[in-house]
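Hi V.,

You were right to ask for the full record rather than a summary. Here it is.
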Amino acid sequence: MSDQAIILFAHGARDPEWAAPFDNIKRRLQAERPGVQVELAFQDFMSPTLDEAVARSAANGAKRMVLVPLFMAQGGHLKQDLPRLVAQIRAQHPQIELKVTAAIGDSPEILQAIGDWVLRGAAA
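Predicted structure:
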């Protein structure tokens, strides 16, 4: 198994169908990067939790992980919960190099794509 992992981190919901788009992203990444472990983790309501996903990746040999928050806006989960969770993970797994990317909602490319999509729909 690869020593690299991508951890996608989403909010979670009570309805299991809510996670389908994120699972699609996970499958696409796995197909495009077959040598990299890809996990999907959730803040609330769903499993695995972020701790569980990191532990599973570490158990499968990952030493370098990239954590990608799949959140659109800076709220309490990103400002308070995520830094606390990352600190706990780093304390529990000091052997792991953990990089945290910006949230997808902070990406100009994502915001541009959403705006373009809205404009296409509005023109129809």
